[in-house]
Structures are given as C-alpha cells and as structure tokens.
Amino acid sequence: MNSNLLSCAKLDIPEALTLDHEMLRAGLLKAAKQPGRIGKAAERVAQLCLAHFAEEEQQVFRATGLLHDLASDRVQSRSAAAAPMIAQLTARHLAMRGDDQPITAAIEALLQEAREEKNEEIAELVHSLKEHETIENQVMYPTLLFIDKSVADSLGN
C-alpha cells in the first residue's frame, strides 16, 4: 500500500454509504443461494457487484472522507496526501465511463428471471441495485470529481 492510500485509510467513510452496500451485499448473497436459473443469474450479479463494491469502498467512499474538511475550508495534511490518489481515481473513472456494461447486463438478466418466476423479492433487489447504480452515476462520481477539483484548488494546483 503506498503512502497516499495509507493516508486515505485514515479518512472516515460515511456510514450511510457502507450501510447501502451491506444491504445489497446481503440481498445478493441470499439471492445467489436460490435454486435454478434465478440463483445462477443472482450469482453472476453478486460476482460482479461484490468486487465493484469492495473497490468502491476502498477508494471512492474513502475519498468522501475529505468532504467535511473541504466544506469548512480546512485543507489538512491528509487532504494534500490524498490528492494524488483522488486525481488517479478521477482520471480512471473518466476513462472507464460505460465500463459497467457487464454489471448492467447481469442485473437485467436477473430481472428477466425474476419476472419469469414472478419473484417479487428478487425484483425488489434488482430495483435497489438499479437505484444504487443511479446514485453512483448521478451523485457519487460527480462528488469524486468535485473533491478532486476542490482539493486541487485548495492546494493551489
């Protein structure tokens, strides 16, 4: 782990973000245990989403720990130390736009299975996953871009 990531490890992750992932993670693991095609489809979604969640928690969520510092115009040493990592995350996010296609396709396949089996519980899980994806695209990633720009501006970059 490089020093930038070590400094980011000290940043507080907002509990609301991790609670959402915990709920989705539990729902996916339960769905993946179901028999037949719905279980296989849920297993595929879990495989893709759980890896995505872990990466998001370690990187994107951790960056949100700087929001309080930025909101109060306090650029602390941890903000400066985290700046290169946040800039890398932002560049990576911009380069990877649209790379969530496999996740979206797997979620749609799970929804199709839920409809065919008239499984409301799985349909609700899919709705929650889609809602989460919308929040990522409309809130989380723009927030990451804002944090990157704000830290850079605060540091005079």
Task: Give structural notes.
The protein is mainly alpha-helical and 157 residues long. It has 7 helices and no strands. The chain has helices at 3-9, 15-32, 36-63, 67-71, 77-95, 101-116, 120-154. Helix 2 packs antiparallel against helix 3 (36-63). The longest helix has 35 residues, at 120-154.
Order of helices and strands: HHHHHHH
> Radius of gyration from the CA trace?
18 Å
Helix/strand structural class: mainly alpha
Terminus-to-terminus distance: 25 Å
List the uncertain runs.
Answer: 1-7
Query: What's the helix count?
Result: 7
Shape: elongated
Mean pLDDT: 84
Helical content (DSSP H or I, runs of 4+): over 70%
- Structurally, the number of domains stands at 1
Total count of strands: 0
The percentage of residues in β strands lies in: under 5%
